[in-house]
Amino acid sequence: MTRIFFLIHLIFITLFSYSQLPVAYDTISVKENGKVLKMPWANGLNYSNFSNIDLNFDNVKDLVAFDKTNQFGVGRFRCYIKTGIIGAETYSYSPGLSYYFPEAVNWATFVDYDCDGKEDLFCSASGGIMVYKNTSSLPAGISFSLTSSLLYTYYSPSASGYANLYAGPAGVPGIADVDKDGDIDVLTFSPQGIFIEFHRNMSMEAYGDCHSLDTFNLGTGCWGKMTENSCTVDLNQTCAFKEWPDYHPELQNPLHSGSCLTCIDIDADSDLDLIMGDISCNSVQFAYNGGTASNALITDTTKLYPNYPNKNSTTQIKMNNFPCTYNVDVNGDGKKDLIATPNTFGSENAASVWYYRNTSSTSTVNFQYVKNNFLQDEMIEVGQNSYPAVFDYNADGKKDLLIGTFGYYNSSNLKAQLALYENTGTLSQPSYSLVTRDYAGVSTQSLSYVIPSTGDLDGDGDIDIVIGTSNGKIHWLKNGAGAGNICSFTFLNNPFTFTTQSAVAAPQIVDIDKDGKPDLMIGGKNGRIAFYKNIGSPTVPSFTLVNNFFGNVDVKGDPNLYGIDGYAAPYFYDEAGVTKLLVGSVSGQIFYYTVPAVITNSCVLISNYVNAVNEGAQSSVCYEDINNDGKRDLLVGNASGGLNFFSSKSPYVGIPDFQKNTNNMVAFFPVPAEDKVTLEISKIEAERAEVRIINVLGKEVLSLSFNGNTGTIDISGLNKGLYIVTINIYSGGNILATSKKLIKN
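RESULT FIELD:
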């Protein structure tokens, strides 16, 4: 027994250090209006660029959304695996895959530039376009390598006018084979603002293949002989384009504010038409190409798209601000459909993915409106931002889910409110069902941000709610129901008569100084936490500011990306007599601290990236025992308005996926396996690898070593079940330690 305990302890130390939480990705059933959501914990969607890409190597195109989440443009890739039959718009969410993609800002789209059948990543760079080649393969999985940190073009080859191929950060350029010669070209608005430039890829001309992005030439500075300005398209225009060296993109003023260009051939005539979205417009503009692939000429335009010409689609693509479109195959029938989403903060959010099915029986298109919340209708989606909390609203002994939000888009603004999901399952197997999206009628208060915390603030035995808002005020939903009764709240407007120094107050009710009275710990936009001590009586709370910089905690992000903002969202809890602190942040990382016994001292940082989890900007956390197993579970909110759930009961607890953090350095396959598994090491020269396989009781059942980067392990003698594989890799005097999970069938 002692040996088993020691081995279990060794596994815990090796695989799951003290800086991590004992939780992993999991799910709980969620219903809305009687419908079971297929991917409830999929994080939400706000302002996304959509692309097709095969994520699981089944030769079926899946969907990736690059969601900018909020006003900073630092997005997350959301991965959706196509499931079900051809023609069905059915998907499953794969949260772990997002960690295999490079970091991106502003915009990102996938296009196969080198004709290998795998979509490569084109994304925003300072002053232009960055490209990552898709190097994914089996068994290694999804991977990308940087091909070009900035694309360049000849603005005037005769004058050696070589400069960055400009693409603004606010829009999305058109990346397609514009001239139909077999390589990928670029359409982008000129920095001067109203003309579209055609940058011709010379790969076919120079090398006879499509593999290169080294040489672009400016084919024309006024593609299609059109201009777009102030949501209006003018035809039959010509441009007096300044060539190099007089033309300097970085010096042009003003730059084009931002447009999305969707290249699409609606009538199968082998030239490309355009769908344009502009940052200053609320509808898209369709531009019909009446010319040819080599000599474009826009001859007709409309804002009524996709009702062109007379397709009888009754729903125009029209949103509050900056709608953009994406021509992707949604239902797997081989025909590209259309998705429209806003491309900027402060527009549609809870219903921001408009899906138009291509119903044409030919190679032309006929887009028919299906829904305005594609994918979102299968997940928890509360608009802009999500702030989870749990409490028992109906006194049935089970923890219900409360979600605050910055707001649902409503006509022309955001309306902040509270969503309530009742736990309709059991104590050990919770299941949530939506009760209302406007719990306690909070929307009538016209608040900006609603960030909740629950607890007994006035010592009467029932649960109250405090709400932090963008103006730094704290409101109280005072529960007058009494212990053991269904909550009944009275809204008290700023009853404590203070305003926090920093905006966007994220409060938590917690007795931080252990005097028996609940205090308020309030995170702020400045990335810090303020301590407001309860100086009232046990039944009449009153608060005074003690410290605006509690524990010297500061979770500001990279100033180049987030400026001076931090958006601290604290969650304090006790563990074995020690106070711990989790803090959500503007970057999406979750910070983890130990709070000293003397609370005037600095908190001790344990990790600034707990469990290597980043589910999106402006993260928020709730770390409570949801499934009644005596261990805490983790709810994580983010700026996209959804949640992710990490459970103490997940089968992946304590078995971190090493590939997520090392970009596929170690491949271990197949899993599950029957007789043999293969270990492959890449990106380093391995001298030797030592492998130990340990069962769930902590007993070592197999050990071996091999030289070099590849080895085969015979597991035919093992019993069926789950095992932990620890691997030590020796290279150049260094030891790389990692782990894998093994399932023996």
